[in-house]
Design a protein that fits this description.
By secondary structure, the protein is of the alpha+beta class. Among the domains are: 30 residues; 144 residues, Chondroitinase Ac, Chain A, domain 3. The protein contains three helices and eleven strands. The longest helix has 54 residues.
């Protein structure tokens, strides 16, 4: 009887020892397994975050880079020339400008927001106008970056003069302003230019303010007048102080 009890105790102890070993093994395994799960979850997040960037195709939407307002739009059908008018600016779409039906939108922003971004040697020059295009394939909703034939853009404004030029603005915040390599054509108060795509925005910049137009900065005369006014105020203040001193002494 005693040996039977002893055998039963030994068996129970052996079973408990086995369970303890299995428990320890599971605990040792649980840490690497948890790390593995966390790593897989992090990798999934990275893949999910990268999908929109990989899926994004076509040119940038310039409405996000300084041109938030749609000031004119037209539905273009191949074979039919279209003219789009946005205030004093105009765009002529030739009949073969692109071989699919698209929505052509004319975008504009704020001249004042672009003025500080001009290159160093153009700082202080007036920004007369700004514009960009957004062209969308109506069948796929994809943006179009390149045209089969260039569109003809023009602006007619009293500020246009010899030397008025088109500058490019990049799809960045803030945009980077650079010279457009192709000069426009100035005829009287009209500046014309052709564009073969919609990947950037554009500015119209004058070398100086047009005659009769207000300037954006203070010229030398304004500086001289400021000094004279300041000097007069100082002299007046000094005279009043001296007069009070004499009264006190008397």
């Amino acid at each position: 009887m005693c040996s039977a009890r002893t055998g039963g105790v030994d068996t129970a102890e052996a079973g408990a020892a086995t369970e303890m070993q299995e428990s320890k093994a599971m605990k040792r395994f649980s840490l690497p397994f948890g790390v593995l799960v966390a790593a897989l979850a992090f990798a999934a997040l990275l893949l999910a975050g990268s999908r929109p960037a990989q899926a994004q195709t076509g040119p940038p939407d310039m409405a996000q880079f300084g041109y938030p307002r749609v000031t004119a739009s037209v539905m273009f059908t191949p074979g039919q020339a279209q003219t789009l008018q946005a205030g004093n600016q105009q765009v002529i779409l030739p009949a073969d400008f692109i071989s699919k039906t698209v929505m052509f939108e004319f975008l504009e922003g704020d001249n004042a927001s672009f003025a500080p971004l001009l290159p160093a040697d153009d700082q202080g020059h007036p920004v007369v106008a700004n514009f960009a295009f957004r062209v969308t394939d109506t069948a796929t909703n994809a943006r179009i970056g390149r045209f089969d034939k260039p569109v003809q853009w023009s602006i007619t404004d009293p500020q246009i003069m010899a030397g008025s030029a088109v500058y490019n603005t990049s799809a960045a915040n803030p945009p980077v302003v650079t010279d457009n390599p192709t000069p426009g054509t100035v005829t009287g108060t009209t500046l014309a230019h052709t564009f073969g795509g919609a990947g950037v925005g554009w500015l119209v910049v004058n070398p100086t303010a047009a005659p009769g137009m207000p300037t954006t900065g203070n010229g030398p005369a304004a500086g001289v007048w400021s000094v004279l006014v300041l000097g007069g105020l100082l002299c007046l203040a000094g005279g009043l102080a001296l007069r009070r001193t004499r009264r006190t002494c008397a």
